[in-house]
Amino acid sequence: MGARDPWARRVRVVLGSGGPQKTDGWSWRRAVAAGRGRVRHEWWCLAAGLGLALLGESVVPVVLGAAGVPLARRVRRAGQARRARERRGAAVIELCGVLAGEVRAGRQPGEALRVALGEAEARDGSGAARSGVLAAARFGGDVPGALGDAAKEPGAEGLLGLAACWRVAVDRGAGLAAGLERLEAALRSERDQRADLRAQLAGARSTAVLLAGLPLLGLLMGTALGADPLRVLLHTGAGLGCLATGGVLEGAGVWWALRIVRGAEGR
């Protein structure tokens, strides 16, 4: 489909692209996509500060925008860590289900674990498919110990339950498949509860973000009424005092609201 010969263009026309398309050249969409991939989101704080500095003819917005870059970077990394933690948790649940199915199919526990880990690695992105666990299963090592080490990663705590099921099944001869199925059900239930709680707290989080954006709406309304709030805030002593006090109160309010939300989500 990415070829540049006439045959590929005819195929695209037949498949309903609406006519011949240009595959070469530099369009603004490709430029935006390339810039979005290279520029981190936190640098938009500095760009916004530069824009406000030009409008208000002051260096204060540039300083505030530069100060907001580390905070935005921290927020972005926290979001990435949360998504990685969720992916690891989903991978552990998937691993338990596949392993239980392999054991039910008649495979030995070590062989079933190797097959399940191989499928997890083939799917790419599984935090549960650790090399230490795979080596322990392949060469007869300490599988529960390797699972315990892999469970230290955020989101992979369910591997502790898998290690306990493995230890009980090997030492006492208990059914491994039944324990894995119960563990998978418990992990799925816990994940669903967290998702439901996060959905219930989404309203409170959105309200906090909306209230945090109200001062910007006030600045826009003042500009529309001709009051020139940027000149007052950036070029007068009273305006700078109001800006500093409002910024501190704004930050404290957002921190307090999000702390309440995180506290409820943590419980």
TrEMBL record:
Pfam families: T2SSF (PF00482). Residues 180-207 form a coiled coil. Residues 96-222 form the Type II secretion system protein GspF domain. Its main location: membrane. It is a multi-pass membrane protein. The chain crosses the membrane at residues 208-227, 233-258. Keywords: Cell membrane, Coiled coil, Membrane, Transmembrane, Transmembrane helix. It is found in: Cell membrane. Signal peptide: none annotated. One of its GO terms (cellular component) is plasma membrane. InterPro entries: T2SS_GspF_dom. PANTHER family: CONSERVED TRANSMEMBRANE PROTEIN-RELATED (PTHR35007:SF4), INTEGRAL MEMBRANE PROTEIN-RELATED (PTHR35007). This is Type II secretion system protein GspF domain-containing protein.
